[in-house]
């Protein structure tokens, strides 16, 4: 069995080397001839699986993406060519939820909002939206969900309309990019929606750039009181419009889901799918590839309180994941390399954007999810605070002072 594997899939070769004959490729260089005699194509969202790419795919039987999003696969063409396809649904949901929580904690710290008196409007109540509700539930933060498909499918949670979402203090988007059907998400956030928002509101997009109409978004910043904006995703990646940078409070290179766990879970999922197709047992486990991390000492200021203070939470959580680090990296890398900020000199923006993503935290500051960390808490930490940390995903251990 011949497997063609995108080189951005972490541990892909280690997972698959005894499953088939593996060849890797870089998404920038793949051509239709690379697909000749290939049985399985395994990729991430950077490879666009179009009918053109598959012109010479004479043996291809299965295409799988180690990502949650699937809009880079031409599913109509794959179906009509009887090529099976799959994805790694939910692999990075927790990572994206932690990204959003980091933004919310910054918003609280800088007094843009009071987290405990705010409502988060979550658009899309799938894996990411639901992972985010778990974090918000842990902190008793209010939220509303908008997901007409889940509502129609009989999901018992309570759902609101987009008009209600437009009233929320924080609006965060977690839908797939879909251009057709009863509930398209392309340009879901359009001029009309943007005009309803004001400067007291925070708009976060960590799903797909096409969900916000970028022209309308840029135009919104020429009108009074635009919302505070956080963007992880863009139209036309990697050749993004850097004119957006100046309007973003935080801007990151499509890495919301790029925790170590989020990416390796994706590899584990496609490995299991490929083994199944090959009729082989999947013997490798996620834990074979994830190192343990040293415990994290958490010196709380208010350990005996019945509610975790936002200050104590920020001090702990931002040592685990801090979006400001990624924002700084992106602005520095792209501005240093291209002198951009105005969008006028973005000659190599695409290459730099791609490189930031490929090299994301490979050297230092590996990004692990809360679940990888054991917190060392003061011995007098209240049961309520211990529970909050546990609900956020941490393990906790009490230690005696001194
Ligand atoms: N920035 C990043 O690194 C990442 C981005 N993503 C993006 O986020 C999207 C969501 O991820 P998951 O939650 O894992 O996917 P999911 O498929 O589990 O959930 C998506 C939800 O959106 C809902 N939905 C679809 N159309 C809608 C509409 N018009 N209005 C409201 N809700 C609608 C669906 O019913 C579903 O419940 C992915 O499709 C992907 O494009 C996902 C992971 C990482
Ligand atoms: O899972 C998704 O959907 C995502 O957006 C991924 O985080 C994208 O990661 P890459 O495949 O582009 O590395």
TrEMBL record:
This protein's record includes keyword NAD: yes
Pathway(s) of this molecule: Cofactor biosynthesis; pyridoxine 5'-phosphate biosynthesis; pyridoxine 5'-phosphate from D-erythrose 4-phosphate: step 2/5
EC class of the enzyme, as a word: oxidoreductase
Domain D-isomer specific 2-hydroxyacid dehydrogenase catalytic intervals: 13-276
KW Membrane (keyword) present: no
Similarity field: Belongs to the D-isomer specific 2-hydroxyacid dehydrogenase family. PdxB subfamily.
Name of the protein in its database record: Erythronate-4-phosphate dehydrogenase
GO cellular component: cytosol
Substrates-to-products reaction catalysed: 4-phospho-D-erythronate + NAD(+) = (R)-3-hydroxy-2-oxo-4-phosphooxybutanoate + NADH + H(+)
Species name: Alteromonas hispanica
Chain sites annotated for binding NAD(+): 147, 232, 257
Free-text function comment from the UniProt entry: Catalyzes the oxidation of erythronate-4-phosphate to 3-hydroxy-2-oxo-4-phosphonooxybutanoate.
A Gene Ontology molecular function term of the record: hydroxypyruvate reductase [NAD(P)H] activity
């Amino acid at each position: 069995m011949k497997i063609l594997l995108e080189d951005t899939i972490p541990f892909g070769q280690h997972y698959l080397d005894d499953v088939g004959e593996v060849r890797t490729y870089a998404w920038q260089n793949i051509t239709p001839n690379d697909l000749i005699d290939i049985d399985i194509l395994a990729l991430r969202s950077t490879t666009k699986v179009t009918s053109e790419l598959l012109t010479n795919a004479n043996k291809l039987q299965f295409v799988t993406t180690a990502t949650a999003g699937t809009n880079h696969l031409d599913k109509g063409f794959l179906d009509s060519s009887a090529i099976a396809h799959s994805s790694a649904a939910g692999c990075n949901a927790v990572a994206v939820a932690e990204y959003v929580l980091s933004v919310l904690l910054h918003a609280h710290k800088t007094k843009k909002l009071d987290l405990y008196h705010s409502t988060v409007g979550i658009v899309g109540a799938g894996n990411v939206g639901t992972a985010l509700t778990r974090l918000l539930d842990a902190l008793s933060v209010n939220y509303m969900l908008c997901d007409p498909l889940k509502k129609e499918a009989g999901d018992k949670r309570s759902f609101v309309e987009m008009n209600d979402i437009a009233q929320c203090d924080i609006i965060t988007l977690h839908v797939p990019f879909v251009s057709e059907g009863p509930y398209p998400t392309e340009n879901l956030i359009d001029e009309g929606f943007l005009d309803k928002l004001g400067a007291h509101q925070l708009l976060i997009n960590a799903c797909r750039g096409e969900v916000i109409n970028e022209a309308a978004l840029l135009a919104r910043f020429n009108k009074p009181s635009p919302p505070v904006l956080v963007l992880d995703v863009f139209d036309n990646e990697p050749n993004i419009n850097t004119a957006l940078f100046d309007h973003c409070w935080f801007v990151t290179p499509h890495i919301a889901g790029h925790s170590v766990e989020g990416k390796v879970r994706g590899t584990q999922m496609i490995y299991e799918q490929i083994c199944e197709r090959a009729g082989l047992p999947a013997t490798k486990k996620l834990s074979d590839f994830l190192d343990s991390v040293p415990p994290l000492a958490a010196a709380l200021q208010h350990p005996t309180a019945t509610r975790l203070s936002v200050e104590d939470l920020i001090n702990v959580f931002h040592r685990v994941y801090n979006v400001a680090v990624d924002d700084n990296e992106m602005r520095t890398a792209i501005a240093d390399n291209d002198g951009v900020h105005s969008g006028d000199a973005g000659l190599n923006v695409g290459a730099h954007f791609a490189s930031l993503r490929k090299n994301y935290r490979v050297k230092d500051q590996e990004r692990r999810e809360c679940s990888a960390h054991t917190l060392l808490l003061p011995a007098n930490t209240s049961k309520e605070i211990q529970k909050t940390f546990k609900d956020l995903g941490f393990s906790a251990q009490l230690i005696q002072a001194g």
